[in-house]
Design a protein that fits this description.
This protein has about 90 residues and is α+β, with helices and mostly antiparallel strands.
Length: about 90
């Protein structure tokens, strides 16, 4: 993660925002010795927050870990979502 001082950030505000968004890489803006702000792309932020939300529940966290383990061990199965939707009377979205 790159660190820049607030003065440099102020001069290059637009460029810094474009870099954070385009490169999906956070940038630390150092305000003073005790304070800093981390700039993160919006999609990345939402992804992290969703992960935190999903992991809040111990039971859900365990299900996710189990799913990851099964995926890693290639113990997964493919399903046909269109067929499954049709069998359950759910219309396909156009």
């Amino acid at each position: 993660m790159e660190h820049i001082k607030i003065g440099e950030f102020e001069k290059k505000l637009r460029n810094v925002f474009v870099r954070v968004a385009d490169e999906q890489e956070p940038i630390s803006v150092v305000m003073d010795e005790d304070r800093e702000v981390i700039l993160v792309d919006g999609d990345e932020y939402r992804s992290v927050m969703e992960t935190f939300y999903l992991l809040r529940s111990p039971a859900n966290a365990e299900r996710l870990r189990e799913g990851m383990r099964q995926h890693k061990e290639r113990k997964t199965k493919s399903i046909n979502l269109c067929l499954r939707r049709r069998n359950h009377g759910i219309a396909n979205s156009a």
